[in-house]
From TrEMBL:
InterPro entries: NTF2-like_dom_sf, SEC_C_motif, YchJ-like_M. This is YchJ-like middle NTF2-like domain-containing protein. It comes from the Bacteria. Gene3D superfamilies: 3.10.450.50. Residues 1-92 form the YchJ-like middle NTF2-like domain.
Length: 126
């Protein structure tokens, strides 16, 4: 899961495509994903919960990023399947109650939500 986040930060859609199976890979638009990943500034990944049951694994995470000077959080519960020693992304679900993608407001002179200690305008708000 962390390797897929890293691949998004580097806009490595070949890796993203290689680590998908099933419906996720059938509906994957590498060109659109590449454009989105390149335009985004990736801030941090929070793994909230991970569990494994045999050949299936589930990871709940929040990916923080900025796009066009707005901060976003992508919150998802991802399903992975183990096949010949490799984990593959199968699907992702939006957790109940929370939104999957939300904007975080931060004033230009407020501390950056990424935790750097810098002002937003000097950090993720660039």
């Amino acid at each position: 899961m962390r390797s897929r986040y890293t691949a998004y930060t580097q806009a490595d859609m070949d890796y993203i495509a290689r680590t998908m199976r099933g419906a996720a890979s059938e509906h994957f638009d590498a060109e659109s994903a590449h454009k989105w990943a390149k335009r985004s500034r990736w801030i941090k990944l929070e793994v909230l919960h991970a569990s494994m049951d045999g050949q299936k694994g589930f990871v709940e995470f929040r990916a923080h990023y900025s796009l066009a000077n707005k901060l976003y959080v992508l919150h998802e519960i991802s399903e992975f399947h183990l096949d010949q020693g490799e984990w593959y992304y199968i699907d992702g679900q939006t957790p109940p109650v929370d939104s999957a993608k939300k904007t975080i407001s931060a004033g230009r002179n407020e501390p950056c939500p990424c935790g750097s200690g810098k002002k937003f305008k000097k950090c993720c708000g660039k």
